[in-house]
Design a protein that fits this description.
Layout (H helix, E strand, L loop, with lengths): L1 E4 L4 E13 L6 E2 L1 H10 L5 E4 L7 E3 L1 E2 L12 E7 L5 H12 L10 E7 L3 H8 L11 H5 L3 E6 L2 E2 L13 E2 L2 H9 L3 E3 L9 H14 L3 E3 L5 H5 L4 E3 L2 E3 L1
Parallel strand pairs: 3-6, 8-9, 9-12, 10-11, 12-13
Antiparallel strand pairs: 1-7, 2-4, 2-5, 2-7, 14-15
Helix pairs in contact: 5-6
Amino acid sequence: MRLQPGNDGLIIGQEPLALAVPFTTAWEVVSLTEANEIVQHGHALVTVLPWSEINPTQKALRVDGRFPTDPDYPLQQNWTLTAAPGTEQAAAALAAVLQAQPSAETLVHLAAVGDLMLDRSLGYYLAQDNLDYPFTHVRDLLATADITVGNLECALGDSGTPTAKSYTFRAPPQAAAALALAGFDVITLANNHAGDYGLDALMQGVDLLHAAGLATIGAGANETAAHAPHIVTINGLTLA
């Protein structure tokens, strides 16, 4: 008996096929027609491989908007069990066992970005209530994740006074709503600019973020609050 990819034999399972491209390319999505063309004839930028074999230098193109981990992702590779003559009955029994194995584990899509500094020119536009401006080109990408995390590298609000340091940043109060509108869920404040305008300004920022529906981690009114995790359940999985 042999377990192999293809359609010859008893189908016992499927595995997503990823259209892998260099991580830094701007290419993000193809249609199913384009995907089938790539699978059949190849493409200079695309490596077709099982989803489990993709590496950190690559990313998978979405096919008709679907990721390889989505239940209705259309590119699937069948795995089949073939049997030598005289072993068909044993192969059928083994196939039944393999087909009954648990399905793929539940997945959670996480989007995490680096420093978010919403002062200076960005702060000017936010203060004019132009909430879309900072994240216009990435909003759709951030919104596709189950949970989106960012590091707010500035104070937030309109209170406090600058501390004695070379650079201080404070985003206007509207920045909290802009972060929520962009699709962020969790904001970390454990950085060297969260306290640029003092403790009162820090707490105003925390309150503004909470009022906008965002969770905060890494800073708070006391040590306990600063070290408290954010706990959330997504797709049946509890995460901290």
